[in-house]
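Lecture notes, unit on protein representations.

Consider one protein chain, 258 amino acids long.
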Amino acid sequence: MDRWQLINKLATTSPSVRRAFMQKIGQAAPPNGAPANGAPAAAPPNGAQPPAGAAPQVDPQALIGGLGEAFSAEINAAATYATFSACATGSHREYLKSYWMEEAKEELGHAQIIGEKICVMGGQPAVQGIQPADVRTNSAMIQQALQMETQAVGLYAQLAQQAEQSGMHGLKVVIEEILADEQNHLDNTALMAQDLEHQDPNQSLATQVSGQFDSINNGGGGASRQSFPPAAQMAPSAPVAPAGPAPQPGPPPGPPQA
């Protein structure tokens, strides 16, 4: 127990004892650094560092700027994925068309949430520019999506930390929910890209998948579909001898012998 705790304890029992004790120990400064006579505490010198372990405060305008960057990135992602949906090719077009369109809708929903938070904080959401989508092949689309989702995960992780340092715990929860969605997008895109790392980048995804399927069949992997060589490579069958003349009917049977 320090002396100020002792003084407070004595004050609850006997004010006179406290006065006598104060006269004995002198006018000690209270724990917060304020003078004992009640004068306001002196301001800390310029350049004073915050206490050890304290998180640095984030400028609200800097946080609004980071949210604005996220808003622009979400609008950009929604436009890019909508373009991917329209330009998907090959035998897997219907699947890729639906997949990219669902991604576009989810990114647009993220932009709506982030835009509302910017407005609540006194800012104004704006789109800084739409990057062109790489639609040369399905593989190129996946690679661009992988890059975009990687950047999104890093950005939202930084924003969640800034929101926590600013004491905006509700905003932090919202950002972390979007971060979880972006991490799922990144994981799915990474799985889609794994089988394309050693493929020809100029080859479409549908052709690559079909080629992998054919190689499994040719290797006896147990696939249900059979593979046959092209007709031009099939060996000609042996000629078939022409059929001979049809047998003639014999004479009718004679009368029975006695």
